[in-house]
Design brief:
Helix content: over 70%
Number of strands: 2
Number of helices: 11
Order of helices and strands: HHHHHHHHHHEEH
Mean pLDDT: 74
Oligomer: single chain
Number of domains: 1
Distance between the termini: 43 Å
Radius of gyration: 24 Å
Low-confidence stretches: 88-97
Shape: globular
Amino acid sequence: MNSENRTPPALDDDARFPDIIEREIASVRKSRAEILGGDGRRFSEHSILFICLLVNGIFAFSRHDYIPLFIAASFYLNMFYFVSLLIPTSSSGVALFTPDIFRFVSWLQKMGVVSGTSRMTRLFMNVFFINSRALSSGICLIFSVDLLFSVIAFFTMKVPEFTILIVVLQALAIIVFYALVWKLEPFSTKFVRNVERVKNRMQRERIPAWVITALFFSGFIVSFILFMTTIILLPGITVGMFLSESGLSAIGYLVFLLAILAFSQYFAVRYIHGSSSRILAERLFDYKEQALTGLFGTSRDQAPAGPGPDYRLDSTTILLESKIYQVRRNSLAGRFPVFVVDLDFSVMMDSPTLTAINGYIRERPEP
C-alpha cells in the first residue's frame, strides 16, 4: 500500500508518543487523499454556472428593476451563506458546544499545556478567519458589482442619496472586512508572531496574565459581534429600506424574483469559494504533515534522557492541534464542493493518545 495513503496503525493504551505521531501522520495523508482527491470540475457545475449567467442576462435586458433586485439579492445571500457552511452535511459532524470542550480545557490545564482560555480562543479565531478567508474572493466580487450598480441606480432610478450612501457603506464594510482577512491572514504564523510581540510588551509592563488573556478574548468577541452585526444583521435592514425607496416593495412576486437572483449568485460564489477553500485546505494539510514529520523525527531520535519540559509541551501542542483542526468537505449532491475547517474535540475520546501524551509530558530526564 502506498505510504502516502496508508491506513493509520491501530494503537493500544501502551502506545508511546512517537507511535501516536506516526499514526497521526498516516491519518493526515489518508484524510488528504479522501477529502481532496478526485475533485475535478464537472460539466454539470459549468452548466449550472452558464444557466445562472443566462438568467442574469435575461433579467438585465427584460426588467428595468434588475439592478436593485441584484443588490438586494446579494445582501440576502451574504446574510445566509456563511451560516449555511456551519451546518454539517453528514451525521459525523461534531458539535462545537459539547461537554468535550470543557473536558478538553480542563485536561489541558491539568497537563500544563495551556494557561486559561488563550489557547482555546486562538483555536476558535483561527477556524473563523480561515473559513472567512476562503470566502473572500467570491463575496468581494459580488459586492464590487454592487458598488457599480449602486452608482448606476443613483443616476438612472433616482434613488435618494442617503439610501445609496447606506448601501455603499454596507458593501464597502463587507469588502474591507474580507480584504483585511485576506491580506493580514490572522491565522498565519506571521500574524501570531506580531500578536506575541504585543503580549510580550504588555508582560514587560507587568500587566497580569489574566488581564492580557481577557483583553485578547474580549477583542475576538467584539470582532465577532461586529462581524455578525455589520455584515450579516444590518444588511437586512438596509435591503428593506433600499427596496422601498426603489419602488419595488409593492411587487407581489418580489420574493420569487429575489430568490432566483440570490440562487444565481450563490452558485457563482460557491464555485469560487470551492477553489479558494481547496487551496487553504491543501495548505493546512501541508502544515500538519510537515510539522508532524519534523516532530516524529525529533521525538524518535531523542536520547534516553529526552527533551526538556518546554519542548515536550510544544510538541504536545503541535500534536493536539493537528488532531483538532479537521477539514470537512461540504458539497451539494457531490457538486460544488467547498472545504470547511472544523474543530473536532473527539480527541478526548482517544484513550491511547491521551495516555501517551500524559506519559510523555511527565517523563523526567535521567540523571
